Backbone:
């Protein structure tokens, strides 16, 4: 087996077990052991000695053998497994090797169609580079797209093009999540998880438009990792009556539009088709209820955090 394949397997061993295997002696106290891969015996070395280290050596040998026993499915089934993170980076490496895909920087999209998923999949396949990129149906009208980065524009621009062309050609409205670039296809599962999160967060926070990036909701993810009991404590510390503002869809829409328009009153008025004085009245009402003048950047940031807290506590 070529060294790159062996490194992929041992990298997967490290991901799953935390055990680092060396292929050359490192010096000091270490345990030498044999494991079999591709029909040949390979010597490995673990730091440490004794019964516990010998158990780890057996665990490594078992895991390597398990990788080799993995049945190879069809291309779509394999790609689904790669995207969902099944079997770590080893499965991604095997996918590249079997289908002759050159590695490189790439990203994933999550496309959720309101109708015609089969036709949408066919359309998407026509829009990507058939030699490297791929699209695969997931479930419930969801389509995953893997795209290798090039000079065709940013991931957001491609997702926007895809959204527009799906609507213009098929009448399909699609919500598209954009994951971050990753340096290798072996990491594509993390980009796809981000794309899925972006779509889910856009639904929860009623994001404007059809295309949403993971970075757009990074603050939400950071706050969402805090236990709900702590979130309640933070919300109580603000001493803000959520029902008056956050329970009023019109006021929430006004505030979110104002923030999206970079605190620009004229632009927000045009976006919402509101008279300038009506907008100012609503902003004053928000200030009376919350004590925050969101025309000031610092108060706008605080208001955004409170909005996230409130919505997370409703889920």
Residues:
């Amino acid at each position: 087996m070529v060294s790159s394949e062996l490194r992929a397997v041992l990298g997967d061993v490290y991901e799953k077990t935390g055990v680092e295997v060396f292929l050359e002696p490192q010096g000091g106290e270490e345990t030498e052991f044999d494991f079999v891969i591709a029909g040949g015996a390979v010597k490995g070395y673990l730091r440490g000695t004794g019964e516990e280290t010998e158990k780890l050596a057996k665990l490594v040998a078992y895991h390597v053998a398990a990788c080799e026993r993995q049945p190879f499915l069809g291309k779509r089934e394999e790609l689904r497994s790669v995207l969902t993170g099944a079997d770590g980076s080893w499965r991604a490496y095997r996918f590249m090797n079997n289908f002759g895909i050159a590695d490189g920087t790439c990203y994933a999209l999550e496309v959720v169609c309101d109708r015609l998923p089969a036709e949408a999949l066919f359309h998407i396949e026509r829009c990507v580079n058939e030699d490297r990129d791929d699209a695969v149906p997931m479930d419930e009208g969801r389509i995953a797209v893997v795209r290798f980065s090039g000079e065709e524009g940013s991931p957001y621009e491609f997702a926007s093009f895809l959204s527009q062309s799906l609507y213009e050609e098929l009448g399909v409205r699609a919500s598209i999540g954009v994951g971050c670039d990753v340096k290798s296809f072996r990491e594509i599962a993390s980009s796809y998880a981000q794309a899925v999160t972006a779509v889910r967060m856009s639904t929860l926070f009623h994001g404007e438009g059809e295309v949403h990036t993971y970075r757009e909701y990074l603050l939400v993810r950071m706050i969402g990792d805090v236990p709900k009991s702590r979130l309640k404590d933070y919300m109580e510390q603000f001493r803000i009556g959520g029902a008056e503002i956050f329970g009023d869809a019109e006021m929430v829409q006004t505030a979110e539009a104002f923030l999206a328009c970079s605190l620009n009153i004229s632009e927000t008025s045009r976006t919402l088709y509101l008279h300038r004085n009506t907008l100012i009245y609503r902003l004053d009402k928000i200030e009376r209820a919350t004590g925050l003048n969101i025309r000031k950047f610092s108060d706008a940031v605080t208001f955004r955090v409170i909005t996230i807290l409130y919505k997370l506590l409703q889920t």
